[in-house]
Design a protein that fits this description.
The complex is a heterotrimer of chains A (181), B (118) and C (170). Chain A has five helices and six strands; from the N terminus they run H-E-H-E-E-H-E-H-E-H-E. With 181 residues, chain A is α/β, with parallel strands linked by helices. In chain A, strand 1 (46-47), helix 2 (54-62) and strand 2 form a beta-alpha-beta unit. Classes of the chains: A alpha/beta (181), B mainly alpha (118), C alpha/beta (170).
């Protein structure tokens, strides 16, 4: 089992598939994948990646009043233990390097929520110097969330949308992004 | 008598099987796409530099050594305690001598200021 | 005018006759210093034998069309201490100034920021390198004549995002 070459394809269609599914008959594999998908979407551990103002709303959502933990989502400080990267804030050119490296260090299955206007399209700083116009130029994004900053309710909505997306995941193999207005 | 050995045997087999099953099931269910960048050392997104080598206090080593000694002594106490009634006074005095020898060792360590955590 | 600010303004006027001193706001002294007097003025403000104002609150720069101007805000950590706003004009073509990190160690990063965003070189700075922008960034963004070059945009990876954003609504 060698190491893949450097051109790791983020959009690999079967990146989240289970190895055991290949050996089992169809109906068992499907049920098993359903079970695993249920487990994955109900325990999304997110990487603490608050880079700017949206981090405050991310922290508020994780705290007592809005509470991410009731969805099984707890924060992890290391990418190895995280399934979800919530990019909360403006991405600078200097930060872009680190963001990509952290995404590469996350273990599959992994998803990305672009939280706020800055992470989605560059936000109020679109076109300014030193700003990456949207984190989807660096990593594949699963859910875009508008807002400056989005309220905690909106962030929870985005997380629930991602869970619905994960529930549908094996069905159409291409991962598509969904937008919340 | 055979019952007891059977129970120990079942425990041994279960103790070996349980981690194997847990890790094996994980290997079947998780994606496996190793990649040199995924396996690189985590340093908050920076390219790692320098050694991972750290220096630790020698007090930790001394504490571990002392613990090991007295833990082995405790291990010897258990079977003695199980058959204590059959051994009677002779057994008590013999174990007292054993413990006394180790108490001398403890007093020496105490005087050598090994027990002081600085 | 608080007494401390008034006496400080007088002291500065005495020692630096070329400087322009004003006290428009209570408790503040506004000074315009020549570049030639800048180092001595900084020593005078910061040292115990001078004014004893040891807290550099801010160090930044402004781009007027014909010149650059360094702005310092200096005060001391007592309630009654006056706030000194010192401005130093620098030429646009080759803006160099002496570093004041030896007088206020807190000037280290602000001077790096001014170097990064305005292009002012500080002589005697212990560690003059970019702080906010990537190392290979060309140009000085906070100057009025800054134009972002396409070469400044980094070679981006395989996100392929903007293409996929078109079918994001499905």
């Amino acid at each position: 089992m060698g190491i893949k070459d450097e051109s790791s394809d983020y959009l690999r269609k079967d990146a989240h598939r289970l190895p055991v599914a290949r050996f089992l008959p169809g109906v068992v594999a499907t049920r098993l994948e359903d079970l695993v998908r249920w487990g994955r979407r109900n325990s999304l551990w997110y990487l603490l990646y608050g880079i700017a103002c949206c981090a405050i709303e991310l922290m508020a959502t994780g705290a007592a009043h809005y509470d991410f933990d009731r969805f099984g989502m707890i924060f992890r400080a290391t990418p190895r233990q995280a399934d979800l990267m919530i990019v909360a804030g403006t991405v600078n050119q200097k930060m872009a390097d680190r963001l990509v490296r952290l995404y590469q260090q996350m273990a599959e299955p992994r998803w990305v929520i672009a939280m706020g206007a800055c992470a989605s399209t560059g936000g109020p700083y679109h076109g300014a110097y030193n700003v990456i116009n949207g984190v989807d130029r660096l990593v594949p994004v699963d859910v875009y969330l508008a807002g400056c900053p989005p309220r905690p309710e909106a962030l929870i909505d985005a997380a629930l949308l991602l869970m619905e997306k994960i529930a549908r995941e094996g069905k159409d193999a291409e991962r598509r992004a969904m937008r919340i207005e | 008598m055979e019952d007891n050995y059977l129970v120990v045997g079942v425990f041994a087999v279960a103790g070996v099987l349980f981690p194997l099953l847990a890790m094996g099931a994980g290997a079947l269910f998780r994606p496996h796409n190793p990649d040199s960048r995924k396996l690189s050392t985590y340093e908050c997104g920076e390219i790692p530099f320098g050694d991972a080598h750290i220096q630790f206090l020698p007090q930790y080593y001394i504490v571990a050594l002392m613990f090991l000694l007295f833990d082995v002594e405790t291990v010897f106490l258990y079977p003695w305690a199980v058959v204590y009634r059959e051994l009677g006074l002779f057994g008590l005095l013999e174990m007292a001598v054993f413990i006394l020898l180790l108490v001398v060792a403890l007093l020496y360590a105490w005087r050598e200021k090994v027990l002081r955590w600085v | 005018m608080t007494p401390a600010a008034a006496s400080l303004a007088d002291q500065i006027k005495q020692k630096f006759p070329r400087a322009w001193v004003d006290t428009p706001v209570e408790g503040e002294v506004h000074v315009r210093v020549d570049l030639k007097d800048y180092r001595e003025f900084s020593w005078f403000l910061s040292s115990k034998d001078g004014c004893g104002l040891t807290y550099l609150s801010a160090l930044t720069a402004v781009d007027f069309q014909d010149k650059l101007q360094l702005v310092l805000l200096v005060t001391a950590c007592q309630d009654s201490a006056p706030m000194v706003e010192a401005r130093v004009d620098l030429p646009r073509d080759d803006p160099k100034a002496p570093s004041v990190t030896s007088f206020w160690p807190g000037a280290n990063w602000p001077e790096r920021e001014v170097f990064d965003l305005f292009g002012v070189e500080f002589d005697g700075h212990p560690d003059l390198r970019t702080i906010l922008l990537p190392e290979n960034f060309k140009g000085y963004p906070l100057r009025k004549d800054f134009e972002d070059l396409p070469s400044n945009e980094p070679a981006l990876g395989k996100g392929e995002g903007s293409k996929r954003r078109q079918d994001a609504n499905r």
